[in-house]
Amino acid sequence: MSAAYEKVKRLEQYLAGDVAVDHVVEQTVDKLLERETARLTELKTRLEQQLAEFENQYAMKSADFHARFERGELGDLMDFIEWSATYEMIANLNKQIALLQEGAPR
Q: Mean pLDDT over residues 46-72, rounded?
Protein backbone atom coordinates (compact mmCIF):
# COMPACT_ATOMS: atom_id res chain seq x y z
CA MET A 1 0.00 0.00 0.00
CA SER A 2 1.38 3.42 -0.88
CA ALA A 3 2.47 5.96 1.70
CA ALA A 4 0.04 8.52 0.23
CA TYR A 5 -2.84 6.09 0.62
CA GLU A 6 -1.92 5.46 4.25
CA LYS A 7 -1.89 9.21 4.90
CA VAL A 8 -5.28 9.65 3.26
CA LYS A 9 -6.70 6.83 5.37
CA ARG A 10 -5.36 8.53 8.53
CA LEU A 11 -6.89 11.83 7.44
CA GLU A 12 -10.18 10.07 6.71
CA GLN A 13 -10.20 8.52 10.18
CA TYR A 14 -9.41 11.88 11.73
CA LEU A 15 -12.17 13.66 9.81
CA ALA A 16 -14.67 10.89 10.59
CA GLY A 17 -14.26 11.65 14.28
CA ASP A 18 -16.15 14.38 16.06
CA VAL A 19 -13.67 17.17 15.28
CA ALA A 20 -14.03 20.71 14.04
CA VAL A 21 -12.12 20.86 10.77
CA ASP A 22 -9.89 23.84 10.29
CA HIS A 23 -10.70 25.70 7.06
CA VAL A 24 -7.02 25.45 6.11
CA VAL A 25 -7.30 21.64 6.02
CA GLU A 26 -10.38 21.89 3.82
CA GLN A 27 -8.71 24.40 1.49
CA THR A 28 -5.61 22.22 1.29
CA VAL A 29 -7.63 19.16 0.31
CA ASP A 30 -9.53 21.22 -2.28
CA LYS A 31 -6.25 22.49 -3.75
CA LEU A 32 -4.85 18.97 -3.87
CA LEU A 33 -7.92 17.72 -5.74
CA GLU A 34 -7.74 20.68 -8.15
CA ARG A 35 -4.03 20.10 -8.76
CA GLU A 36 -4.49 16.40 -9.48
CA THR A 37 -7.46 17.13 -11.74
CA ALA A 38 -5.36 19.65 -13.68
CA ARG A 39 -2.49 17.16 -14.00
CA LEU A 40 -4.78 14.43 -15.31
CA THR A 41 -6.53 16.85 -17.66
CA GLU A 42 -3.17 17.91 -19.11
CA LEU A 43 -2.21 14.27 -19.65
CA LYS A 44 -5.59 13.62 -21.26
CA THR A 45 -5.06 16.53 -23.66
CA ARG A 46 -1.68 15.13 -24.75
CA LEU A 47 -3.19 11.69 -25.29
CA GLU A 48 -6.11 13.15 -27.24
CA GLN A 49 -3.56 14.76 -29.57
CA GLN A 50 -2.07 11.32 -30.15
CA LEU A 51 -5.54 9.97 -30.93
CA ALA A 52 -6.08 12.77 -33.44
CA GLU A 53 -2.84 11.81 -35.18
CA PHE A 54 -3.94 8.17 -35.45
CA GLU A 55 -7.39 9.25 -36.68
CA ASN A 56 -5.81 11.41 -39.38
CA GLN A 57 -3.31 8.74 -40.38
CA TYR A 58 -5.88 5.95 -40.67
CA ALA A 59 -8.95 8.06 -41.57
CA MET A 60 -11.03 6.50 -38.81
CA LYS A 61 -12.56 7.79 -35.58
CA SER A 62 -11.04 6.32 -32.44
CA ALA A 63 -14.33 4.90 -31.15
CA ASP A 64 -14.90 3.08 -34.45
CA PHE A 65 -11.30 1.89 -34.52
CA HIS A 66 -11.44 0.61 -30.96
CA ALA A 67 -14.66 -1.34 -31.53
CA ARG A 68 -13.22 -2.96 -34.66
CA PHE A 69 -9.86 -3.61 -33.00
CA GLU A 70 -11.53 -5.28 -30.01
CA ARG A 71 -13.47 -7.53 -32.41
CA GLY A 72 -10.16 -8.56 -34.02
CA GLU A 73 -10.97 -7.04 -37.40
CA LEU A 74 -7.84 -4.93 -37.81
CA GLY A 75 -4.85 -7.09 -36.96
CA ASP A 76 -2.11 -6.34 -34.49
CA LEU A 77 0.05 -3.61 -36.00
CA MET A 78 2.09 -1.83 -33.34
CA ASP A 79 0.27 1.41 -34.22
CA PHE A 80 -3.05 -0.29 -33.51
CA ILE A 81 -1.88 -1.64 -30.18
CA GLU A 82 -0.65 1.84 -29.20
CA TRP A 83 -3.85 3.48 -30.48
CA SER A 84 -6.00 1.06 -28.50
CA ALA A 85 -3.94 1.57 -25.34
CA THR A 86 -4.14 5.34 -25.73
CA TYR A 87 -7.91 5.17 -26.21
CA GLU A 88 -8.28 3.05 -23.07
CA MET A 89 -5.97 5.34 -21.08
CA ILE A 90 -8.21 8.29 -21.93
CA ALA A 91 -11.28 6.34 -20.84
CA ASN A 92 -9.58 5.62 -17.51
CA LEU A 93 -8.50 9.25 -17.14
CA ASN A 94 -12.10 10.36 -17.72
CA LYS A 95 -13.20 8.11 -14.85
CA GLN A 96 -10.45 9.40 -12.56
CA ILE A 97 -11.21 13.04 -13.38
CA ALA A 98 -14.93 12.50 -12.77
CA LEU A 99 -14.16 10.92 -9.42
CA LEU A 100 -11.94 13.83 -8.39
CA GLN A 101 -14.61 16.32 -9.44
CA GLU A 102 -17.45 14.45 -7.72
CA GLY A 103 -19.19 16.84 -5.38
CA ALA A 104 -16.97 19.74 -6.43
CA PRO A 105 -18.65 23.10 -6.94
CA ARG A 106 -19.24 23.82 -10.62
A: 97
- 24 in Cβ contact with 49 (< 8 Å): no
C-alpha triplet 33, 86, 40: angle, nearest 5°: 10
The C-alpha torsion from 13 through 16 and 17 to 21, rounded to 10°, is 100
CA dist., res. 33 & res. 83, Å (int): 29
Is the per-residue pLDDT at 37 higher than 60? yes
106 — pLDDT class (breaks 50, 70, 90): low
Buried b (16+ CB within 10 A) or exposed e, 29-52: eeeebeeebeebeeebeebeebbe
Whole-model pTM over 0.85: no
